[in-house]
Amino acid sequence: MTEQPPGLAAADLYTDEFAADPYPALARLRRDAPVCPVSSPRFDSYLITRFDDASAALTDPRLSKDLYGPGRQYLRIFGPNSEGLNKNMLNADPPEHSRLRRLVSQAFAPRRIEALRPRVQRIVDDLLDKIVPLGQAELMRDFAIPLPMTVICELLGVPVADHDRVLEWTQVIRTSGSSRRPPEQERAAVQEAQAWLHGYLADLVRAKRARPDDAMVSALIEACDSGGKLSEAELVTTTFLLLFAGHQTTADFLGNAVVALLTHPAQLALLRADPELLPAAVEELLRFDGPLPVASPRIATEDLDLRGVRVPAGSIVGVALNAANHDPAQFVDPDRLDLRRERGPHLGFGHGVHYCLGVSLARMEARIAIGSLLRRLPGLRLGVPVDRLRRLPAASPFRGLLELPVRFTL
Question: SUPFAM superfamilies of this UniProt entry (predicted)?
């Protein structure tokens, strides 16, 4: 093994400049230190940035997702109050992961998701009906966030009266680090939100057990009761994973996609002129600026040699999906948005056994949302210069916008 390359400190990456445009810094890492020790405000890790290395890491059984096993790595990553929500299939290895995913995957069968299309279109239309007469909107608050939140709440069976409260608490977690409050107050707010969501979801599971319906939580309870395959705690943590993953990345993707299109007017005009490009456009927009810059953490179960760098057992390893998706060894002119790009594999939905379970729903929501926005908001443009857009902090596990002011022609 070679000697370890110099590490990167938080000051090197986790800046406002990096949050605005991380791709030049990621290109330097890809070129000079494709496996690099990184010190972040949340935890230290080794960051993988090249496409081939990233694809291999996402399927390497020596890189465990079991954060709650020996070593209890979740304490470093999520904090002491996270186990009630985060001990789920995202943070598990086979066969445990396989057992949990098999139960949940039935609810995301393509035929069932396709049956949701009219309802998703109705939600989109209702949101746009409120926006269209105004000539302007804050698109994250008014559209990108409430759309997937409403869809996943309905899918899970969250009562309509509770949607706003659930949204409020999930946004506390999503926007952590973006306020000017002292760090201890920020941590307290997140812990309060986690505690509230855990209590709420536990109550929801009990309510569905007492009065089942045709929503997903009831289906999970039935699987638990008929086969003993899900514990009560797993019902709660699985519901949280579906709730959070089911709206967070889609909301952030929609914001990123709109900014990408509005800052590439030739590509926007191309899509307006040829709506048949929409499926390919969604894939290219996800490759170009995805909402999950680094895959959820993995733990080295033994000493590893990754591209000549020694990664000690117990180290956290991050796979930089957005860096891999801009690798010139995989994509021609990768920093160019090209909606007619020849379709090729990207890592926006992950890879391997943890490939995004909700990919069919995410694609369907994205296609309906972007198509409807372009059709119903003529002359759509940014309401502020692109360099004044407020983004999630660079230390966030998500890449997205806090606000997206837009204007359009009435």
Answer: Cytochrome P450
